[in-house]
Amino acid sequence: MARRGRAATLPAMSEAEPRRAPSDRALAITGAAAGAFVLAFTLYWTLFPLTPATPLEGRFADNVILALELARTADDVRAVLGAPGDPAHAALRDAVDRLNLADFAYLVAYAALLACAALLGARTVDRRLAALAPLAVLAALADVAENVVLLSLTASDADLAALLPWLWASTYVKWELLAVVTFALGLAHGRAGGWRRLSALAGAAALASGLALPFAPALAAPLLALAFAPVWGTALWDLAVVLRRRAPAR
Fold it and tell me: Dihedral sign, CA of 173, 137, 219, 50?
């Protein structure tokens, strides 16, 4: 039997928003720091390209890593790295290994950037954007698998025929998931209008390039990588804007 007297009171639901603000800031700090690393690594990757064993003649925008990631045959791998164990290209294989080892940090950074941007966007633009966070993490996990295979490809006793199916699977999962996440974030940016419509256009280009990737990888891969820049840059900008806001008074 219920007792008479004053009813217990619960905290007002309106208090939830102030409590959530520090979480927004934590996401912004994490995402912005990750985005700064992504930017620095991308600049390094772009400004200091590797030279393949055989000239790519414009294919994959002459990028060794893109050509290796999307190699379909053993001949494709040898064209990039030279024959397994060939001492003439040992320095190239060592440089590729170093870059792929550094990529383990890069994949954590881009997953954090995209996931944080998606979670913040879910609170301010469309709650469905939260679904992009696990997709970004899955893309990074596929990138881990890809890196393991790429590090195996440079070994002197690499079994190229056995490794290539694993490379194909992990690479395409990574690229296609990133194309979807980039498209959705760009679409969300475009809702604000103005210069952000450029992000929406870049997101659409990412999706189109992702669809074309299995059929024309040498052309689609550089376009897809290029389409990431405006969308990911806008995401980094939005995270920086959140950081500039004054913390709520307590």
Answer: negative
Range of the domain at 191: 22-244
The reply to whether 101 falls in a domain is yes
How many domains does one find in the chain?
1
Convert the pLDDT of each residue in 94-149 to its tens digit: 999 999 999 999 999 999 999 999 999 999 999 999 999 999 999 999 999 999 99
Q: Residue 136 burial by CB count (10 A; 0-12/13-18/19+): exposed, middle or buried?
A: buried
Residue 98 lies in a domain: yes
d(CA 189, CA 139): 21
User: Which CB contacts under 8 angstroms, 24+ apart, belong to 104-107?
Assistant: 104/144, 104/147, 105/37, 105/41, 106/37, 106/38, 106/41, 107/140, 107/143, 107/144, 107/147
Q: What is the mean pLDDT of residues 9-17?
A: 40
Q: Is residue 10 part of a domain?
A: no
pTM: 0.88
Q: Collapse the DSSP code of 165 into the 3-class scheme (helix H, G, I; strand E, B; otherwise coil) and give the result.
A: helix
In a domain, 249, yes or no: no
